[in-house]
Design a protein that fits this description.
The complex is a heterodimer of chains A (574) and B (266). Chain A has helices at 9-14, 19-49, 77-113, 121-140, 170-198, 211-242, 261-295, 302-316, 331-343, 345-359, 368-391, 393-399, 403-433, 439-465, 485-515. With 574 residues, chain A is mostly helical. The mean pLDDT of chain A is 94. Chain B has two domains: 3-62 and 69-109, no CATH class; 119-250, Sandwich (Immunoglobulin-like), CATH 2.60.40.420. Chain B has helices at residues 3-12, 28-59, 76-109, 228-241, and strands spanning 119-126, 129-134, 153-157, 161-166, 173-177, 182-186, 192-197, 202-208, 220-226. In chain B, a hairpin with a 2-residue loop joins strand 1 and strand 2. The two termini of chain B are 29 Å apart. The model of chain B is unreliable at 251-255 (pLDDT under 50). The chains are: A mainly alpha (574), B alpha+beta (266).
């Protein structure tokens, strides 16, 4: 690793093979798209409560949609469909995935298992630049004359094929961008799995790994198994779009018999349901670890939590049918999927109680990462429990394709995962950038995110319970939706507060990066290995390969005097 | 019948503070019930979790003189308690709602009515309208005397079971009746079936619940529930007007199977 010291700027910061630099690159990319996708959410909310009114200046009304067919600065139905399609796609594949898996997967895995780097550094480099290429393709679709894809983030055919009536090449760009992003994810997943299996420091048994690593490990396994499946689905969708095939087209628009749109739904959800867990598992891992750090006691039932996460991972592959209860599925299949789905609540409940157990009799320190971690318990608790309505066939017949589902998955995917990501950013920022983030601003950011977020996503479920179906450009079209319109406006107000609060985060991030207080080596008194090295961490990480003596959460151990923690690489005094 | 609604209002005076649209169906109460049972139990569990968190936040907050108790939570007792709580959640929520749901599916939603009393309607959604087709006097679909009302107009008699079979012309749509708490997807290439029975007369909305293009948001139909007499008069008036089937000319080449033979016995 000696040659690493004499690198040019380009090979050190741009085409770097250092996992820490690649992690930061993923972080920049993820934060950019988080803001980009979040801004689109603001446009969606504006359009929902001010349908067909020009955008105000603070939503860039003087710049956007100037050539809109319904009037300058006005979001029409086509533009609205494009907005929610791209909002979903970007938030899932370009914001959450790069931040939690790309950034923290890269940054944490080698450091937390005591490895010098990823096992395939070059693959890591290619993984990031493939993602970058995917981003370029995605952003280019905004320049197309007919705009981006508009078939929803699920892009069900035949709507997403040429017979669906959506003009332009947006869908093709969407497929290409997603395929590239999937390729990037797959390369990352192979790298992560191999690194965790092969490069753990001496003594780092599987059951001594931090739960963050467990989460990332299981996520990577799911990615490696299921990304190829969505890739297959995307390729047949691409062929239907550009090569005139009709794999996924049937009915009156088909000219060749034998196509089946339902095939895509199965393929999509065989990937799509594990995808939910792909996103949430790293957040669960991070939260499990952080609750322990800030409670100053070991993670309650560490091994049980890890086993529960494995169980959920396995089950996640068996339940995709619960997204398709209303497709006319055979009763036997429907009931089987329902039973399997409900089984997941056992391991979920167990590890949730373990989180509570971690807090129990601790010494809770309410630093910003802890606030975000505890809020994950709140939002995931609500998100998980409201999943029961959707797992149950009869209530899902009513709630499917309503805002109830939208609220539910925003709680589980958006809120839980993003709060997990914020916890991770506030927590590892000192190790990534050598400075502390401002704690007061962080707490303001927390409260101005947590409260409005609940006001938006909980009310989505209320609206769904009142019957409001999804992807409706103008809710005033329906008489039965008249009672929800007031709530709709209230949600928009809170959504804008939520959006504005992220400005505080950006401000804090930028300010701390340049002028933040210099961080000590281990500001959180954390026991995992990444805190045993000084910032800046050299390429190659550890001067001496660390030996691991015990689990990742040895806080307040009675044998340790004078401080309340002991690093994994220090032998336990007797 | 809505025993849980009462508990619901009592426990948290309706946590979903908006009511769903008025239920005018024979079986909608079943769906309301399973939702309301779930409301009660999850509120209970979530309430316990939140109270515990609040208690821990106050009692175990870091302060001078307070130390965390070293406890890995991995003794047999601890693991047993968490396993027990997981099972408790499963038994008290999942098993109950699964039982309710299976019972409702077997007794109502998947128990299709049979006999002469049943009103049969074929539905063919297209971008962005609903087409309906009635069998006419001969009771057979795909014949000359089929009755086709103007688009987006569906009429049914009150208090009689209605079975619809649905297949779209172009893309996926979903036939959603908020006042009946039900919906069914219309997927090209397959015929789906759903049944319902109205208990009240009036005009209600039919919505498309599956994104189907830029005018998805206004793909709205009207369901008119009327007395048997009015319904028969309406059918009669259709008969006199003659069919308005814009698809009829294309039938030979059109593989939509509009006017398909009724699929018996599901």
């Amino acid at each position: 690793m000696n040659s690493h010291n004499e690198q040019s700027f380009v090979s050190k910061y741009i085409f770097s093979m250092d996992h820490k630099v690649i992690g930061k690159q993923f972080l920049w990319l993820g934060i950019f798209f988080l803001l980009f996708g979040g801004f689109q959410a603001m446009l969606i909310r504006w359009s929902l409560s001010n349908t067909m009114e020009p955008l105000p200046w603070w939503l860039l009304g003087d710049i956007l949609y100037q050539n809109s067919p319904v009037g300058a600065g006005i979001i029409g139905p086509d533009a609205y469909n494009q907005l929610f399609t791209m909002h979903g796609t970007i938030m899932i594949f370009w914001a959450i995935t790069p931040i939690l898996i790309g950034a923290f997967g890269n940054f944490c895995i080698p450091l937390q298992i005591g490895a010098p780097d990823m096992v395939f550094p070059k693959l890591n480099l290619i993984s990031f630049w493939t993602m970058f290429l995917a981003s370029v393709v995605l952003l280019m679709s905004y320049l197309l004359p007919n705009g981006t894809a508009a078939g929803g983030w699920t892009s069900y055919p035949p709507l997403s094929t040429p017979v669906g009536g959506i003009p332009g090449l947006g869908q093709v760009f969407w497929i290409l961008a997603l395929t590239l992003a999937g390729t990037s994810t797959l390369m990352g997943a192979i790298n992560y799995i191999t690194t965790i299996v092969r490069l753990r420091a001496p003594g780092m048994d599987y059951f001594k790994m931090p739960l963050t690593i467990w989460g990332l490990f299981l996520t990577s396994i799911l990615n490696a198994l299921f990304v190829p499946i969505i890739a297959a689905g995307l390729i047949i969708l691409l062929l239907d779009n550009v090569a005139g095939t009709q794999f996924l087209i049937a009915g009156g628009k088909a000219t060749i018999p034998g196509g089946d749109p339902l095939l895509y739904q199965h393929v999509f959800w065989i990937f799509g349901h594990p995808e939910v867990y792909i996103l949430i598992l790293p957040a669960w891992g991070v939260v499990s670890d952080l609750l322990s750090v800030f409670s100053r006691k070991p993670a309650f039932g560490y091994k049980v939590t890890a086993i529960c996460m494995c169980t959920i991972t396995a089950f996640s592959a068996l339940v995709w049918g619960h997204h398709m209860y209303t497709t006319g599925m055979s009763p036997l299949l429907g009931k089987t999927f329902m039973f399997l789905t409900l089984l997941i609540s056992i391991p979920s409940a167990i590890f949730f109680f373990n989180w509570l157990g971690t807090l129990w009799r601790g010494a809770l320190q309410f630093d910003t990462p802890m606030l975000f971690s505890m809020s994950v318990m709140w939002v995931f608790g609500l998100g998980g429990l409201t999943g029961l309505y959707n797992a149950t066939i009869t209530s899902d017949i009513y709630l499917h394709d309503t805002y109830f589902v939208v609220g539910h998955f925003h709680y589980t995917m958006a809120a839980s995962v993003m709060f997990g990501a914020f916890a991770a950013i506030y927590f590892w920022f000192p190790k990534m950038f050598g400075r502390q983030m401002n704690s007061k601003l962080g707490k303001v950011h927390f409260w101005f995110s947590f409260i409005p977020l609940n006001m938006v996503f909980f009310n989505m479920m209320v609206m769904g319970y009142a019957g409001h179906h999804r992807r409706i450009f103008d809710p005033t079209e329906y008489e039965f939706l008249a009672p929800v319109l007031g709530l709709n406006n209230l949600m928009t107000t809170f959504a804008f507060i939520l959006g504005a609060a992220q400005g505080l985060f950006v401000l804090n991030f930028a300010y701390s990066l340049l002028k933040g207080e210099k961080a000590e080596q281990n500001p959180w008194k954390s026991a995992t290995l990444e805190w045993t090295v000084d910032y800046p961490i050299p390429h190659g990480n550890f001067a001496v390969v660390p030996s691991v003596y015990h689990g990742p959460h040895e806080y307040s151990h009675p044998n340790v005097k004078e401080r309340d923690w002991i690093s994994q690489s220090e032998p336990m005094p007797t | 019948m809505n025993k849980f609604r009462k508990i619901n209002k009592f426990v948290f005076s309706g946590i979903w503070f908006l009511d769903p649209p008025k239920d005018i169906s024979v079986d909608g109460w079943r769906i309301d019930n399973v939702i309301q049972y779930t409301d009660v139990v999850i509120t209970l569990y979530f309430g316990i979790v939140v109270l515990a968190m609040l208690y821990f936040i106050i009692k175990y907050r870091a302060r001078p003189g307070h130390k965390a108790v070293y406890d890995r939570g991995d003794t047999k007792k601890h693991v047993g308690i968490t396993l027990g709580m997981g099972l408790l959640v499963f038994l008290s929520i999942d098993v109950v709602i699964e039982g309710m749901s299976f019972k409702d599916l077997n007794e109502a939603f998947w128990n299709f009515p049979k006999g002469d009393d049943v009103v049969q309607v074929e539905v063919m959604p297209q971008q962005f309208a609903w087409n309906f087709r009635y069998a006419g006097n001969d009771g057979t679909f795909g014949t000359e005397d089929d009755l086709i009302p103007s688009q987006n107009q569906m009429h049914i008699p009150v208090n009689k079971p209605v079975v619809i079979q649905i297949a779209p012309y172009d893309v996926i749509h979903s036939f959603y009746l908020p006042n009946f708490r039900i919906k069914i997807d219309a997927t090209p290439g397959m015929i789906n079936t759903m049944w319902f029975q109205a208990t009240e007369t009036g005009q209600f909305e039919i919505a498309c619940a599956e994104l189907c293009g830029n005018s998805h948001y206004r793909m709205k139909g009207y369901l008119t529930v009327e007395s048997e007499e009015d319904y028969n008069n309406w059918l009669q008036s259709l008969d006199e007007e003659g069919p308005e089937d814009e698809w009829e000319d294309e039938d030979d080449e059109n593989p939509t199977r509009w006017g398909w033979a009724w699929k018996e016995a599901i």
